[in-house]
Predict the structure.
Amino acid sequence: MRIWMAAIGAGLTIWAGTAMAKSTTPPEKLTLQRVFASPDLGGGQPQALRLSPDGTLLTSVRPRDDERNRFDLWAMDTRTGQSRMLVDSRKVGSGAELSEAEKMQRERDRSKTGKTGILDYDWAPDGKSILVPVDGELFVATLDGNVQRLEGSRGALNPVVSPRGRYVSFVRDQNLWVRPAGAGVARQLTSEGSGTVHFGEAEFVAQEEMHRRTGYWWSPDDRLIAVERFDEAPVRVFTRASIGATGTSIYEQKYPAAGTPNVLVDLFIMKPDGSGKVKVDLGADRDIYLARVDWLPDGSALLVQRQSRDQRTLDMLRVDPATGKSTVLFSERAGEKSWVNLSDAYRALKDGSLIWRSERDGYGHLYRWKAGAWTQLTKGAWVVDSLVSVNEAEGRLFFTANRDGVLERHLYALDLSRPGEITRVTEAGWSLSGASGDDTGTRFIISRSSPTQPKQTFLADANGKRIAWVNENAVSGDHPYAPYLASHRPTEFGTIKAADGTPLHWQMITPVLEKGRRYPVFFMHYGGPGSQDVWRDWPGNMPLRQFLVQQGWIVFQIDNRGSDNRGKAYEDAIWHAMGTVEVDDQLAGAAYLKSLPFVDADKIAIYGWSYGGYLTLKMMEAHPGVFAAGISGAPVTDWSLYDTHYTERYMGDPTRDAAAYRAAGALETAERISDPLLLMHGMADDNVFLDNATAFAARMQAANRRFEMMLYPGKAHGAVRDIHPWTTILAFLDRHVTKNDVK
C-alpha cells in the first residue's frame, strides 16, 4: 500500500452511511425475502478502501442501494468529508459477457463471487488518475469525473499501474501486455501464450488454494518484470458440463486432481519492452509450487518461495535478476505428520533483514531473519494472523493476532528492539475482520464487528485512536437493520471438551425461551482446515441466523479440531484422516445440545456447504439416528476428485495411501445414511465438481436409500447465496423435522 498522508481532520466522519437519530419504528420480524433483498441488512459496506497518494481522497467501491451486488467507485475528500461517485458502473460498463478466464478468477476470489460493476481499481502514483476495470475492459478515471476507455483492453486480466506509474500492464489471450501510461499502444511482451501455455496468470491451484491471484510482478523502479509461465499440458482434462437453464456448455477443463500431474511452472525476468529475458533457476525438481514472488525494496533481487509437492518443505530463494541464479536463504520444514502452511505475513526490510511468520514452535509467530540469524519476536499459545505494517524508522511492527483470546482478533504493536513488550492497539470486545496500514506505520484502516454491531470501519493512528469514521454503520435511523434491532437476539459463547480434553468453542443464538418448551436446533458447521467460524463478530449471514431464530430455531455452531488459529497440533489432528476428529467433535456438540433442557433432542438438523456439506454426509453415515435431518451442499464425496494442493496437503498422495482416501471419502459408506437428507449442488461448479454429488446420488440409489436433491442450473460453488436454496431448506426441515410446529 502506498504511503498515506496525515491530511485528515480529527473527528471527521468520512461515511456515516446512516442517519443517527433513534428510530421510533416498532420492531419488525425478518422475512426470508428481506434477508436476501437490497439494501444489505448489514449496512452498505465500502470495499477496496485506499487513500490517494497525497492523502486527500479516500476511494472505495460501494454497493448500490437498489442493487446490493453491483458496485460503483466513490471518492471522498478527507478534508471536508464530501463524497461523490467517481465512476458509475452502469454508465461505463457495456454489460458484455465476461471471458471464461475472468469468470473463473472471480469464482476463485470469494469476495467477488456473484458481484458486478467495479470490484477493484489501481491508483496512478501521481494521484491524478485511477485504472478501473469494468465488464472485462479497462478505463482511466480522472478526478474531475472524466472516464475514458483504454483501446484494445477487452478481455484484460490482472491489470495494474506499474509502481512508478510509467506503464499499464495486463494479461490478454494468455500473454502479458504493457503499454505506456499516457498515449501509446499496448505491446505484447510474450508470444508463446496459447493452448496450454499461459504467461502472467496464476494457475488454478495458486488462485484457489495458495491465495496468489497474479502471475507477474513489477520491480519497484519499473525497470524489470518477473513473469510466470505455466504449461497445463501434463494436467488431466476433466470434461465439465456447465448446465444452465437454457443450455449446456461443455468445458475441457484442466483440473489437477489429487495424485495427478500439476502444471509445469517457470519464472522469467524481463524488461518492460520484453527484451533481456532471463530464466530463474527454480531448481532441478520440476514438480514444485511457485508459492510467492516479491522484489526486495531496492529492486536488487527477487525473493521466491518454492514449495515442495508434498508441502513439507518451503524454501526461500534469493534470485539475481541479471542472471536468474538462485540461492536458498533458509527453509521451513514440517514436523512429523504435518505440513508447512503458506502465509502473507512477511516483509523484506531496507536493512536487508526479513520479518517472517513461522509455525516452528507450534504456533504461528513472527521472527526476524538477518544474515542467517533468527530472532523470535512473538511467542506464546496464541497465533499471529497477519503482518500489517512496519515502521522501520521507529523500529515498530504491527500485526493482528488472537493474543487476548481465541474468539477475538486484534491489532498489536511491538518494538523490534524489545520484542517481548507487546501492546494491544484495538479495543477489546470486538473482532477485526481487516486491518491495513501505511508504509510508515502511522495510519491504519480498521474494520471490526461484534455480535450486536455489523462491520464498521474507521481510520486510526498508531495508538488505535480513531481519527475518522469511514463507515460508522450505526444500527439506528434509516439503517436497513434498524427496524429489526429490537428483535435481535444475543449470541452466547461457551466451551466443551473433545475426547482428548481439548477445549472446543461454540456459539449459540436462542429465541426468547419459554418455560417448559423445547426448541429445534439448526446446527451449522463448516469444520474444514484453515477456517474458524466461532468469533465474537457479526458474520455475514447474521440476518439469516436471526431469521431462523425468529422462526423458533436455536442456531448452533462449534469449531472442531483440524480447524485454524489454535496452533499446529490442533490443526494437524486431521493428518491423513479427514472426516474423523471433525465428526467426533461435532458429535460432542450434538451431545451437549441434547443435554440442555430447552433443546428438543429429537429435532436437531445439521447443515453445511462445501467442506461442511462433506461433514454432513460423514456425520450422518457415522451416527445414524442422532440427527433428525441433514442438508449437504456442494460436498466433496471423493477426495481423489479434489485438487492437488489442498487435498495432498492434508491427505498425502492417493497413489501411495489409497486406503486413507477411501476412508476419508463419503461414498464407501453412503448406504449407512437412513435419516432424511437433502443434497444440493450448483450445476456449473468448477471447484467441487458436480460429479461428487452425482456419484453420491448413484450410491444412494444403488442402496435403495431415499433422499431429496436440488440442483442449480448455471450456478457455481456459491449457489447458496441466493434465496431459493433457503426456501428449499426450510420446506425440507418443515416436512422432516419441525412438522409445522415452528412459527
The chain has three domains: 44-150, 156-321, 488-738. The two ends are 50 Å apart (CA to CA).
